[in-house]
Amino acid sequence: MRNTFIQELNENKREYFIKDEEFHHLKNVCRIRKNEKICGFNKSGLSAELIIREIKKNYILAEALKFIKKDFNYRISIGISVIKSKNFNFILKSIQQLGVKKIFPFVSEYSIRINKIDKWNKILIESAKQSGNFYIPEIEKIYKLDELSEFKGKKIVFYEKSERFLDEKILNNCENLLFLVGPEGGFSQGEIEFLRSKNFVDLKLRTNILRSEVAVITILSILKFLTGEI
User: At 118, which CATH number?
Assistant: First the structure.
């Protein structure tokens, strides 16, 4: 069944006019046909089985047959330093597939200064179509480290010079977790000292120093396994 994003999807509405990019994708790429069934979803995790009633020149009319509401009880949020577009886009696709509560892109001393929030959110939607993970942690803005220091819950920063390794004890009684991964140049010593002063625990992996995109996927996979989310 084809997946399509419908922002206005809600359980009190039965008919939907699918237009613009989603219309083009369904009609010209997927070659959807009348009476074919598709799956629609919104950013909060609500999805629905829909049937195509009409295919017009500029829109598709679809009717919702049944709604599916799944609870996504993710506990892990991630702060990722903005890096080169190609690598950052790859990170976003991977994060969406694995599933997180919130994504906080941030700038640090060695970050690249780019802002492509609209594009990043589109990447998350496209990845949701492919993966079937219909909870989308919308990116709201680019953050500074002092803003992330106000996070309520367990706070971890991964630092290659840390004297402590990641282990399951770190996650005891953890209901809300944020972890940070820096850019290719890592965090400066001053940034690490600042984060420590804000109750971040600095940790490292029992492995070689990893590229940012590899580190994010590796760490998120480990944390989701330790918290029972994978």
Answer: 3.40.1280.10
* DSSP at 141: -
Distances (CA, A) of 210 to 51, 82, 185, 186, 223: 46, 16, 11, 10, 16
List, in sequence order, every beta strand (DSSP E) within the chain.
2-5, 15-18, 37-41, 46-55, 60-69, 76-81, 102-107, 143-144, 154-158, 177-181, 201-203
Domain range spanning residue 181?
76-226
Domain harbouring 35, CATH code: 2.40.240.20
* Beta strand 76-81 pairing with 177-181: parallel
Looking at residue 200, the DSSP 8-state letter turns out to be: P
Which of 25, 47, 69 is the C-terminal boundary of a domain? 69
Contact 75, 227 (CB under 8 A): yes
Confirm if 38 and 52 have CB atoms less than 8 A apart: yes
pTM over the 0.70 mark: yes
Which pLDDT band holds residue 125 (cuts at 50, 70, 90)? Answer: very high
Judgement on whether residues 144 and 199 belong to the same structural domain of the protein: yes
